[in-house]
Write a structure and sequence with these properties.
By secondary structure, this protein is of the alpha+beta class. It has helices at 3-11, 26-76, and strands at residues 89-94, 100-103, 117-124, 130-132. The protein has two domains: 1-77, no CATH class; 78-132, no CATH class.
């Protein structure tokens, strides 16, 4: 056996190979193993906690997307007597019977007294989704 193989085999032993080597006690070995387990447990918990936070964030984002899709689908199904164009504001009104409709005419253009209940002004974006019109009507 050459010297390199001897060194490797001696390093893997659980006991000292010479009288000058430090004594390896079972209690020390158990403490080392316990410390390793605690360290692994702590790192694993930290990583899993981060993944959990990311999953929750993705769930919230998915819910927002689904809610917006439901709103967009509802708005697309509302009566409209004209072709909707991108970036054009549309004013949503509701009749007394609950029927909703879009109009080009804003509440201000009605002199502040529209014929039906004004709900909101929307603009259709290029992806055919709607957003609330932020500009003054």
């Amino acid at each position: 056996m050459n010297e390199e193989n001897t060194d490797k085999s001696q390093r893997s032993l659980t006991y000292g190979t010479s009288r000058l080597a430090p004594a390896i006690r079972l209690v020390d070995r158990a403490k080392e193993i316990e410390l390793a387990h605690e360290s692994i447990k702590s790192h694993t918990h930290g990583k899993l906690d981060l993944i959990l936070k990311q999953i929750r964030h993705l769930q919230q984002e998915a819910n927002k997307i689904l809610e917006q899709a439901a709103v967009d689908a509802e708005l697309h199904s509302i009566k409209c007597n004209f072709e909707k164009k991108i970036d054009q504001p549309y004013h949503l009104y509701e009749k007394d019977d609950g029927t909703k409709y879009f109009s080009f005419v804003s509440p201000i253009e009605w002199g502040g007294n529209p014929p039906h209940k004004f709900i909101e002004t929307y603009v259709m974006k290029s992806d055919r989704s709607f957003k609330v019109w932020e500009e003054e009507i």
